[in-house]
Amino acid sequence: MLNRFSKLLLLGLAALIVFACQPDNPAPQPQVQTEWVSRTDGFQQNYVLDQLVILSRHNIRSPLVSKNSVLTRLTNPSYQWFQWEGQPSTLTAKGERLEAKMGTFFKEWLEKKDFISKYSADNYAFRFYANAKQRCQLTAKSFAGALLPGLNPRVEMNVQFDTMDPVFNPQITKISDAFVGKAQKEIQEKFGDLNARMASAYAIMENVIDITHSPAYPDTASFSMFPSSVNFKLNAEPSMSGGLKMACTVSDALSLQYYEEPDEKKAAFGHSISFDDWVSISSVKEWYGDILFTAPSVSVNVAHPLLQVILDEIQNEKRIFTFLCGHDSNVGSVLAALEAEDVDLPGSIEKRTPIGCKLVFEAFTGKDGVKYADILLVYATAAQLRAETALSYSNPPAGVKIKLKGLKENADGLYTLADVEQRLTKAIVAYDAL
């Protein structure tokens, strides 16, 4: 039997032997995961992220109209709309909190890429620029504050507060009889009868608001009663008249109520409706936006100043991070002007430009020395929005790859940066031909 001293001596000798047998160069430790979207094997070793340029939609706001306007006229008087705080069309407290969660996620992402340490208030590496509307300015400030906590990054506002900055204003700035004729033809070819495709969605909404017991009934028994048409005017947003415009107001308010009201049944005024029904309800306002802003000639017209800013930012060698904050019309028109393919957006009731979404342009340098680019649409899912879920690499927002028609990807799913810059240039030059 070994005494206690002998046992300790043998243990010590064993430890020395194990230590001596360790190789001079220990096996590498597993790498920290720095990609949260699906990538090919070896992507991290083959590409270095150089820059992010982000075009964001503002986060959750109150409806554009007050509850005592058309919403009241079209709704059963016994139904109570969500009690919104603040003025119409302003970012809500929940929207502010949600945007901070998205900023916190991007902070984790950029820390893994060693971007955050490069921030300085007195250099040009980071830029935050938002439309002067409260919902855009506060979204940008919430995101920036969470991305760079304690550093108080400045958010640019280049016009008077609560007015539309021309960069973010989706207005017609070049018009002629030829343009109007071409735009109307494109809308007709792409969308057809503006009400017909929304008939089933109209029926769902009309049931939810109980339009047949509203003050507007029977003069307004259905949104389909009123033909819809689009009009163009110089230095103004494309406008619409008819049933779709009326339906869009209701669709917008119901979708926002779904995000804010914890009780999903209460959000539908006591009706038990499915997730697909909420998708249908939201599709009305998205159809409205698509018609107004995504016809080819219209998109390059209304997105022109923003396309120029995006290209300038991508080509700015001193910039590594740009955050631009505007509206769904901005994201939608830019995607259309760039000839983006349609994508599915899992988990969202908004299938085009979800609330708070980010159109992210990534620029990389490959191991081969070539500059590459990728485009993502990043958004919180409906479940994440409703529950105010914390976002992180373990619970990330959704990220969907945006493909541009006619551009060729490499084996890792990237475009050359030159091709993306050329597509931006093509859309910018198309404005001159209007």
SS content category: alpha+beta
CATH homologous superfamily heading of the largest domain:
Phosphoglycerate mutase-like
- The radius of gyration computed from the alpha-carbon positions, rounded to a whole number of angstroms, is 26 Å
Any low-confidence stretches, pLDDT <50, length ≥5? 1-33
How is the biggest beta sheet arranged? 7 strands, mixed
**What's the helical proportion of residues?**
40-55%
Provide a count of the helices.
Answer: 15
Total DSSP E strands: 9
Structure description:
- Helix 4 packs parallel to helix 5 (134-147) and helix 12 (304-314) runs antiparallel to helix 15 (417-432).
- The protein is of the alpha+beta class.
- It is globular and about 65 Å long.
- The strands form 2 sheets. Strands 1, 2, 5, 6, 7, 8 and 9 form a 7-stranded mixed sheet that branches. Strands 3-4 form a two-stranded antiparallel sheet.
- The longest helix has 20 residues, at 93-112.
- It folds into 2 domains: 43-64 and 88-171 and 300-432, Phosphoglycerate mutase-like (Rossmann fold, 3-Layer(aba) Sandwich), CATH 3.40.50.1240; 177-298, Phosphoglycerate mutase-like (Rossmann fold).
- It has helices spanning 4-20, 43-46, 70-74, 93-112, 134-147, 177-191, 199-209, 243-260, 264-267, 275-293, 296-302, 304-314, 328-337, 382-387, 417-432, and strands at 47-57, 126-130, 229-231, 239-241, 321-326, 358-366, 371-379, 398-401, 415-416.
